[in-house]
Protein 1
Amino acid sequence: MSPMLRTWLLLLVALIAPAVAGANPIRIKDLVEFDGVRGNDLVGYGLVVGLDGSGDGLRNAPFTEEIMSNILERLGVNVTGEQFRPKNVAAVFVTATLPPFARSGSMIDVTVSAIGDAKSLLGGTLIMTPLNAADGEIYAVAQGTVISGGAKAEGDAAQVTFGVPTAGVIPAGARIEREVDFDLSSLDVLRLALREPDFTTAGRIETAINRAFGRQVAVMLDSGTVRLDIIATRMASPAHALGRIENILVEPERKARVVVDQRSGTIVMGEDVRISRVAVSQGNLTLRIEEAPVAVQPNPFSDGDTVVVPRTRAAIEEEAGINLAEVPDGTSLSEVVAGLNALGVAPRDMIDILKAIKAAGALHAEFIVR
């Protein structure tokens, strides 16, 4: 047995522990979404002005000139037939989320993104832009100074860009002008939708709520839904009932899952991932071919010609890898990864090993590759 194989097996034996830690209790409000308590997406089309020559080229973005003309017309400035092509204006899309139970006069954050060929929105000001919901109604109006998270500098022969200067945010940049009609107090039954559907977690939520009220007020409908009877809670309103149950602690159950990112070499796994008895062998084979032609000169005062003689060097190298090793039955994936890390296995090689173990049917978890 090679020293590397012996080290790996000893490390695996040392890491295997019979105790399995349970999940930490989580508040119900962090596990579910309450039916009807949701936000609404808003979108608008506006204009950012005051840019330092980094706006849209109006020849390539005629819609910018059109909206600028409309704004000036509404302000009483007649620009019909005029030719003006400023470089400090950019057309943008403005997006925001209307929070649940938001009231008129409240302020919300907005995101501003250029849609033309503007180079930067840094230092620009968004002109009053109405924000519409999916029903076509205006629910908020946005205006303010754009805070861009990027920067761009350029010269005659080079340029450098940091972040994304063509997008930015306006904190508290929109004022709510219209409220969403939703009467929570009129509901007799409320559904709790689990963010990660699971029968065990839904059953535990049902049991925890019924235990808190001392009677049957919650019923599990399926793996993703728990129904709450507001009348049975004997609370003054649905809001009071939700305020009481949202901080109840529940231990969630999650499906065993492994997520790997091939681009960055990141591996994320749950504690419930297990591996059956399997043998692993891994190594890298490298073939190298180098061409080094040599020029041969003729003897002095001879009629010969210079000849190029080909010279080729070929070699096969096998890098150090993992020799044939056996992983005990019931070993957790975290223990296997810890052993591979101790041996200095590269993240990309580790991902290939995990793929092979999954293909062999020994990795008992959902395997997601991105």
Protein 2
Amino acid sequence: MFGVVFPNRSFPIDISTFTQIDTFHWVLDMNHFVGEAYDQISEMCIFLLNNFNLPPDKALAVYVQSPGSAFVFCGAVTLARPSAVLSLQWPEPGSAAKMQLTAGDSSSLSAKIGVSVEDVAALRSLDVVAERRIEKLAMKVGENLFNFMQSFCGVDGSKLVVPMDILDRWFKKFQEKAKRDPDFLKSFAL
């Protein structure tokens, strides 16, 4: 059905390494795999096997669970996206994160990776980390614009007043700096 690789950590692992909870849920106990060093596993590649036909409206969703926490969604694969390298954002042990995966006990004393067959439409994103990076990028660009505008602001009562061409000036400066310094844009992406 599916396989998993932990880059620089493992050979391909097939579904037989996971414990099947029911028809649509599997769990990998990280204590048996890496012990207490589960949080050092920061990414995972999951892939559909050639002979497995996942319905087009379904996805294999991946979740992680630290000891004593709830499962947290990391991403998914579909027939249209048959493999993915997902960043594993382990929740704080014992955290009260919202339970996302119905299989297993959230009060467990070991870290786990859960895989679940779910409706694609029910998933908010196939790649949570990419979504977070885009959000961070937008916030940093907005902060840069705000700081630039703030240096030209005047105050009129309870209103901030900026020159009419402030966005054009900021965008021109932003483009020039990006051309001069190749690391400038990279600093926004981190």
Protein 3
Amino acid sequence: MGCQEELLVERVCEICQKLSKLESLKPSKDVNMLFTQLVLTCMPPIPIDVNKLPKRVQDMRSKLIKLCGEAEGLLETHFSSLLGSFENPLHHLNIFPYYSNYLKLSLLEFTLLSQHFTHNSIPNKIAFVGSGPLPLTSIVLASFHFTKATFHNYDIDPSANSKAFCLVSSDPDLSKRMFFHTTDIMNVTSGLREFEVVFLAALVGMDKEEKGKVIDHLAKHMAPGALLMLRSAHGARAFLYPIVDPCNDLHGFEVLSVFHPSDEVINSVIVARKFSSPVDSSLDQGGLVTTPPSPSPPPPTMMQIPCKCCEIEAFNPINHNHMIEELAVEEKI
């Protein structure tokens, strides 16, 4: 490791130690301060490969991701309860401190997905796995981007779904288009074939093995040709969220797009398409496609295609200075 990477690891370990000593990770002055420090530490584009770090640092990272997941859940629960106290909760979403990040992330995901639609293939039925008590991605996508689609939100926690339903129940439009299912996605089989797009939340599968099982389950039961939208992490941001390796972790899918933000949007985004036939899924990931695939898949071949997945940093569909205007335009469309 170079000096920059060593300083980063030292700082992250120090913050992790402080977080571990807190009695609770519920929103508070100390919790907010430490997580703000952690995010600001991990945000710069430091070229660090967390998979090559010493075991003690790997163990610390695993612990830290779980702490981040717990804190994120508590934060969302707190604000979902607060929003639920309003007569029209969706009119007050901006009180959530990271609402603007969700606007940007959802616009990014919609833009990447749109590259792989045709006019006749705009999705009507979308699933979000791991929606939680504050399903902002589904709400933003349903409100501004997929304004005719139905959203089926899956979460294993009944209280999370109860809080989430409370947020949309008073809205005459979203209450008819958003549904909440309390179940483990590993128990959903034939139902997954109904969706043209499936979103997988970053914190569904807190380690590589667990996330791999979920992805394999989706590969087995999603409809052929359906799109999978995954959230991952890159560089130092991998101390905050689990990594999905587009070259090795997406068996059964063709990787279409990979994007690593360099701004305050923390999550990397991967778009993949379920192979149309069982034969196709025997191929290794064959690179990164950044233009819409042809209507019919190429003839299957038994040769192994070397992975050439690359990182795209230059293209950024988000114009920070015109976010409101862009959302307005998307809403009109």
Protein 4
Amino acid sequence: MTPSSSPRAQVDIDLDAIRHNLALLGARTPGAEVMAVVKADAYGHGALPVARAAVEAGASWLGTCSLGEALDLRRAGITTRLFSWLDVPEVDFAAGIEAGVDLAASSVGELRRIAAAVPAGTQARVHLKIDTGLSRNGCPPAGWAELVSAAAAEPRVDVVAIWSHLACADEPGHPSIDAQAKRFAEAYDVARAAGLDPKRHLANSAAVLTRPDLHFDVVRPGIAMYGLNPVPQAEDLRPAMTFRSAVALVKRIEAGESVSYGHTWTASHDTNLALVPAGYADGVPRSLSGRMDVWLGGQRRPVVGRVCMDQLIVDCGDFEPGVGDEVVLFGPGTKGEPTAREWADKLGTIDYEIVTSMYRPRVRRRYLGAGS
């Protein structure tokens, strides 16, 4: 690697892996449309390139959290159906309606704010959300009939769908899944009785993989399209993100010398150290100090001492790497390198958090595969 091609830290995004994952998920849901979820800058992978790859792979919808995310995609030329589901009350719904973005309503008040923003002679495309047991966003069952009636009577609104979100789909067999499915079915019956004919969408990545009975009309794969499996079963999903850096300095220290802040690690023998210019400002959690490996010189090597803001130290033993040699902090795991899931397990979190946190000013993003 030459200096011009070696940023201090870089994430590579394999767009072909994303296409592969969506094709696999689409094959699992032959009777449903696929809404590729690209919220939070596509889980840290880059919303626009991922959105384009997802559409090429057959997604007929794109899902965002905020209206701003959806409008950014529209302005960039994305014409695919967009759905935005959570914003502050002061959001300008009119901009979304004019851009053809589908909106979510979880209350009569929210429905009325959307209707009030509709330009004359048009309609807002709305998805009514029922809270089936996550107790987060969504209309409580006690208020559902009122919301449905209000939507059915509102000429400025076209009710496209009803939807909800599962709390424990990543725990196959959890009793809440069937309980939520039952409430969702009841909510659909209420909507139909009010004269509506909405689509239904409930299945996230885990339900796409484990509950074909809940696929309905549209499925919403998120983490699985990025190659990270939310359920403990074998799938041919390919992680799309690799986090890499390069060796900036090599030095040999004698036994008894200590490393980094606090001298938490002391060499038991003479050894070579590699300095890697990536630290917690670049997405390497400080809490992984002394608990992580990197892939360097064809094998795993331990990070020793504390991870610093801008750098970390790798113990290479008698192996002497070269300045500029590639260091993989996490990747797909196909060569034996650490993975985002491994980081998450050590930190007591989920791999969603690891990859989503990789959008940082000092971390360069590079795209691989067709269309990169």
